[in-house]
């Protein structure tokens, strides 16, 4: 039996990966149990993902206490392999102690390597079958980003085959979805652009500042908030439509309220996934904060014209800016140094259709070759 772990991680990235991965497991009739923690379970519930075990913990608990809580819960669980979504080692530690094959799947590599009982235990990382980094493309130069002493593997987002096919098919509906948006917003004209901001609200949330326990430096937070503010102000120069998450709009509500010509459509976490993807597909262009996340893989598969305005980029956050430059060298991305240019002007330039088509072909090939089957092979399950 396979244990799937989704715990001790922030944001919705891990939850989105779990949705796809567990669907793929059911597609393959692979038995599994899902473990989460008392803080993360709400994100799984919001996405309709059932879980089997909960690790209890409270704010202020020591790392030692968290490891102990995991061992208490896992003592009653019999399993043959583990896939852990998220870079912290609290749950994978149980597998490595028992000598059970385990892989970690995450969008980023550990920024620090610690001795036990650190949350990023080098001892645990060294015993993994692999630390798997998700992306939708690969070039050997990407290996140069990574710390030594750990077996890293670049893998595809763990999409089911049905999900891959659905995103590939979305491209054919773009014209219809665009017409529906024009009917919904009759003030749009031939000079108007529909823009989708592909960015999680955590990146503009002041509570994610590292000084108060978050994951962003002050420079990174300021960069991201400035980026969103500039995008709103520049798009307001004509009758454009911007689609973004409501939680982002709330963080810059005064700027949104001050827009005279720009129309803003706000999404929520309650919107169905299919509606989210369709609204994104209706856009003339997507501004993507990252290049290696789940959304970027979906965008590539669906052939959506995308400007990769990496943010934060100043401090080399997760190697995203270096990654997008490598993607550009492969002909699959158009990166924009967002602080150095007019966002509205580069938007008007558009995206070369060859880049978009090459992105589709690369993403489909990599998704099928380095996807769920490859991940299960690492554990000896296939």
Highest-level CATH class of the largest domain: Alpha Beta
Q: What distance lies between the first and last C-alpha atoms, to the nearest angstrom?
A: 13 Å
* Tertiary shape: globular
CA-atom Rg in angstroms:
21 Å
Overall CATH architecture of the largest domain: 3-Layer(aba) Sandwich
Count of discrete alpha- or pi-helical segments spanning 4 or more residues:
16
Instruction: Please mark out the parts with pLDDT under 50 across 5 or more consecutive residues, or reply none.
Output: none
CATH superfamily of the largest domain: Glycogen Phosphorylase B
Q: Largest sheet, described in full? A: 7 strands, parallel
Q: What is the helical fraction, as a range of percent? A: 40-55%
Strand order of the largest sheet: 3-2-1-4-5-6-7
What is the SS-derived class? alpha/beta
CATH-derived topology of the largest domain: Rossmann fold
Helix and strand pattern: EHEHEHEHEHEEHHEHEHHEHEHEHEHHH
Strand content: 15-25%
Can you tell me the number of structural domains?
2
Query: Averaging pLDDT over every residue, what do you get?
Result: 93
Count all strands and give the number: 13
Please characterize this protein's 3D structure.
- By secondary structure, the chain is of the alpha/beta class.
- It folds into two domains: 2-158 and 368-378, Rossmann fold, CATH 3.40.50.2000; 162-351, 3-Layer(aba) Sandwich (Rossmann fold).
- The chain is built from 16 helices and 13 strands.
- The protein has helices at residues 13-27, 41-46, 63-74, 92-98, 122-127, 161-170, 174-184, 218-235, 246-251, 253-258, 273-281, 294-301, 320-329, 343-349, 353-369, 372-378; strands at 2-6, 32-37, 53-55, 81-85, 102-106, 130-135, 152-156, 194-198, 241-245, 263-267, 285-288, 306-308, 334-335.
- The strands form two sheets. The protein has a seven-stranded parallel sheet with strand order 3-2-1-4-5-6-7, sandwiched between helices. It has a six-stranded parallel sheet with strand order 10-9-8-11-12-13.
- β11 (285-288), α12 (294-301) and β12 (306-308) form a beta-alpha-beta unit.
- The longest helix has 18 residues, at 218-235.
- The protein starts with a strand and ends with a helix.
């Amino acid at each position: 039996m396979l244990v799937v772990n989704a715990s001790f991680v922030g944001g919705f990235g891990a939850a989105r990966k779990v949705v796809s991965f567990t669907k793929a497991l059911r597609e393959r009739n692979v038995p599994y149990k899902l473990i989460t923690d008392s803080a993360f379970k709400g994100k799984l519930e919001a996405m309709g993902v059932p879980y089997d075990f909960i690790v209890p913990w409270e704010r202020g608990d020591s790392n030692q206490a968290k490891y102990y809580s995991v061992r208490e819960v896992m003592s009653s669980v019999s399993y043959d392999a583990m896939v852990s979504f998220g870079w912290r080692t609290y749950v994978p530690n149980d597998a490595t102690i028992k000598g059970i094959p385990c892989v970690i799947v995450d969008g980023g590599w550990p920024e620090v390597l610690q001795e036990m009982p650190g949350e990023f235990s080098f001892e645990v990382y060294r015993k993994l079958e692999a630390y798997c980094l998700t992306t939708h493309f690969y070039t050997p130069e990407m290996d140069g980003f990574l710390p030594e002493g750990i077996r890293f593997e670049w893998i595809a987002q763990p999409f089911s085959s049905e999900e891959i096919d659905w995103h590939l098919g979305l491209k054919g509906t773009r014209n219809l979805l665009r017409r529906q948006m024009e009917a919904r917003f009759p003030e749009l004209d031939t000079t108007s652009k529909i823009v989708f901001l592909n960015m999680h609200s955590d990146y503009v949330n002041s509570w994610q500042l590292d000084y108060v326990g978050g994951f962003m430096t002050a420079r990174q937070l300021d960069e991201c908030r400035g980026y969103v503010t500039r995008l709103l102000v520049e798009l307001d120069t004509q009758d454009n439509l911007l689609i973004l998450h409501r939680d982002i709009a709330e963080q810059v509500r005064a700027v949104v309220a001050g827009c005279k010509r720009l129309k803003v459509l706000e999404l929520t976490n309650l919107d169905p996934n299919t509606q989210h993807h369709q609204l994104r597909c209706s856009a003339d262009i997507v501004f993507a904060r990252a290049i290696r996340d789940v959304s970027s893989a979906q965008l590539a598969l669906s052939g959506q014209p995308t400007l990769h305005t990496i943010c934060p980029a100043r401090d080399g956050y997760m190697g995203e800016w270096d990654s997008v430059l490598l993607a550009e060298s492969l002909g699959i991305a158009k990166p924009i140094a967002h602080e150095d240019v007019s966002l509205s002007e580069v938007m008007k330039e558009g995206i070369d259709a060859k880049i978009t088509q090459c992105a589709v072909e690369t993403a489909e090939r990599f998704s099928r070759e380095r996807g769920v089957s490859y991940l299960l092979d690492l554990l000896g399950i296939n």
